[in-house]
Amino acid sequence: MTRITENTIEDFAIKLLEHLGYEYIYAPSIAHDGENPERSSYEEILLTHRMAEAVRRINPTVPPAAQEEAIKEIQRIHSPELLTNNESFHRLLTEGIKVSYQKDGQQRGDLVWLIDFNTPENNDFIVANQFTVVEDGINKRPDVILFVNGIPLVVIELKNAADENATIKSAFRQIETYKAVIPSLFTYNAFTIISDGLEARAGTLSSGMSRFMAWKSADGKEEASHLVSQMETLINGMLNKETLLDLIRHFIVFEKSKKEDAKTGVTTISTVKKLAAYHQYYAVNRAVESAMRATGYSPSLKGWKTQSDGVVNSPPKEGWSQTGVVPNPRVQEISRNSKNYLSLPYNPKLKERAKELRKAGNLSEVLFWNQVKRQQFKGYDFDRQKIIGNYIVDFYCANCNVVIEIDGSSHDDKVEYDAERDAYLESLGLTVIHILVNDVMKRMDEVMEMLDRHPALQVEEPPRLSGTPPEEGNFVQESPESYGVAGVKSQPKGDRKGGVVWHTQGSGKSLSMVFFTGKIVLALDNPTVVVITDRNDLDDQLFDTFASSTQLLRQEPKQIENRNDLKEKLKVASGGVIFTTIQKFSPEEGNVYETLSERENIVVIADEAHRTQYGFKAKTVDEKDEHGNVIGKKTVYGFAKYMRDALPNATYIGFTGTPIESTDVNTPAVFGNYIDVYDIAQAVEDGATVRIYYESRLAKVNLSEEGKKLVEELDDELDGEELTETQKAKAKWTQLEALIGSENRIKNVANDIIQHFDQRQEVFEGKGMIVAMSRRIAADLYEEIIKLKPEWHSDDLDKGVIKVVMTSSSSDGPKIAKHHTTKQQRRTLADRMKDPDDELKLVIVRDMWLTGFDAPSMHTLYIDKPMKGHNLMQAIARVNRVYKDKPGGLVVDYLGIASDLKKALSFYSDAGGKGDPTIAQAQAVELMLEKLEVVSQMYSGFPYEDYFQAETGQKLSMILAAEEHILGLEDGKKRYINEVTALSKAFAIAVPHEQAMDVKDEVSFFQAVKARLAKFDGTGSGRTDEEIETTIRQVIDQALVSEQVIDVFDAAGIKKPDISILSEDFLMELKGMEHKNVALEVLKKLLNDEIKARSKKNLVKSKSLKEMLENSIKKYLNKILTAAEVMEELIKLSKEIVNMDSEAKKLGLSDFEYAFYTAVANNDSAKQLMQQDKLRELAVILTERVKQNASIDWTIKESVRAKLKVIIKRTLRQFGYPPDMQKLATETVLKQAEIIAKELNDY
Question: How high is the pLDDT of residue 906?
Answer without folding.
Answer: 55
